[in-house]
Write a structure and sequence with these properties.
The protein has 3 domains: 10-291, Rossmann fold (3-Layer(aba) Sandwich); 296-373; 376-405. By secondary structure, it is α/β, with parallel strands linked by helices. A 7-stranded mixed β-sheet has the order 3-2-1-4-5-9-8. Strands 6-7 form a two-stranded antiparallel sheet. It has helices at 10-17, 29-41, 77-84, 134-144, 171-179, 187-196, 220-232, 246-258, 285-291, 294-322, 335-372, 375-379, 381-389, 392-405; strands at 49-53, 68-73, 100-101, 119-125, 145-156, 198-200, 214-216, 264-269, 276-283. A hairpin with a 6-residue loop joins strand 8 (264-269) and strand 9 (276-283). Helices cover 46% and strands 13% of the residues.
């Protein structure tokens, strides 16, 4: 769920988890937030049913705008208002009525069974990184959505927020959390979260701008205190448990689908925008992944692993500009050095895009091979041969007949 308490800095948390979004207090912010929401919901019927998880004061599909939205959060509205009443970046008037309160257990359990399979979209902005068990979270989405429903995720990019120094999440870690049926974060995650959270220029989510001065937000001893407290505390305490860049999230979804843990594939994913990126998921991931040969699967995985390094390189390049090489006596970078880093960053981005194209090519090649080896393709081969010998006008008539039959 969304961050609520026990974070290194309330303002840091709100900036990252409020997303590059608006609280309605900055000129032009409402327009930017509306454009962001419209982009995320493109393709969802305007009269479609939506379930939105933990929207707080920044809903993507607000009821006030006419959306048929069921809101899930960990507290009723009046309690959320009380928690955030004095928060400097929170407009509590935007907090909407909470339809279902989710405190523990599978998310789908708090939504009545009669509502399962009735929603067109499952929206979660800056939520997935908080959930103790991502596999269970995604499977709950499958339970409540229609067969053609879409999962819409807004995900913080660890390169541009307080997770800057944290390692990326692996599939093995997600499998472990699911095997443990985890509903609370672990002491280790608590220590790492508080020990290595940073701000830059006083901000916990700075986006794609030059670094202004990184600073650890907590004392090491305080992180140890959190570790000890987690061992004693049975209640849920919130934090970022998982970290991603776009390519690493793609790799996780591919591997989870191949292992049969989830049935989602990424229909579309964006590069980082500010401190976040967007992903749209559709059902059918397990069948798609299962159809890949071992060789093709590993080609795709390797391409994504390379992209992860390229995306991480962009983070390092940004740091190199802000933190001159100590061997140069901490001299500020010259204009030529700054331009060289900029060019290298562009080269890195292009290399990442090339790897993405290669991964897409491998995926399309695998889908083509699956079609060519299918029984239907072999059975209809004589008909295709006959059709190919017909004059163009006859082939046109056959296509019209086929479309009418479909």
């Amino acid at each position: 769920m969304k961050p609520r308490m026990n974070r290194p800095s309330a303002s840091t948390t709100a900036e990252c988890d409020g997303a590059s979004g608006s609280t309605g207090r900055r000129p032009g912010a409402d327009e930017a937030w509306l454009a962001r929401a419209q982009a995320l919901l493109a393709g969802v019927p305007r009269n479609g049913r939506i379930v939105e998880i933990g929207p707080l004061f920044n809903p993507i599909a607000p009821k006030a705008a006419g959306y048929d939205t069921a809101v899930v959060d960990h507290l009723p509205r009046e309690e959320l208002v009380a928690v955030f009443a004095d928060h400097p970046s929170a407009d509590v008037s935007r907090i909407e009525e909470v339809d279902y309160v989710w405190r523990e257990g599978p998310l789908s359990d708090v939504i009545p069974a009669a509502q399962h399979g009735t929603f067109d979209a499952f929206v979660a902005s800056h939520v997935i990184e908080h959930t103790p068990d991502i596999i269970a979270f995604l499977n709950s989405a499958a339970a409540v959505l229609k067969p053609d429903g879409v999962v819409i995720l807004v995900i913080p990019d660890k390169r541009y927020c307080f997770d800057y120094f944290q390692p990326l999440t692996t599939t093995g870690q997600l499998l472990e959390a699911n095997a443990e049926k985890r509903s609370r974060h672990t002491p280790r995650l608590a220590f790492d979260h508080f020990a290595y959270s940073v701000e830059d220029g006083g901000s916990g989510a700075w986006g794609q701008r030059p670094l202004q001065g990184l600073r650890l937000t907590d004392r090491l001893e305080d992180a140890r205190d959190k570790f000890d407290a987690f061992g004693r505390n049975s209640s849920y305490i919130d934090l970022h448990a998982w970290r991603f860049v776009p390519a690493s999230f793609e790799l996780l979804l591919l591997e989870l689908a191949r292992l049969g843990e989830t049935d989602w594939f990424i229909e579309r994913i964006t590069p980082a925008q500010g401190s976040e990126f967007f992903a749209w998921l559709r059902r059918g991931g397990a069948a798609r992944a299962a159809a890949l040969s071992d060789e093709t699967l590993n080609e795709q995985r390797l391409a994504l692993l390379k992209r992860i390094l390229f995306e991480t390189q962009a983070q390092i390049d940004c740091l190199a500009v802000a933190e001159p090489d100590p061997a140069k006596n901490n001299a500020a970078p010259s204009p030529a050095e700054t331009e060289a880093v900029r060019v290298q960053g562009r080269i890195t981005a292009l290399a990442s895009e090339l790897e993405a194209v290669r991964a897409s090519e491998a995926r399309l090649r695998a889908e083509r091979d699956a079609v060519l080896s299918s029984g239907t393709w072999r059975v209809t081969e004589p008909l295709r041969r006959v059709a190919g010998a017909l004059p163009p006008s006859a082939r046109s008539i056959l296509r019209k007949i086929a479309r009418g039959a479909a």
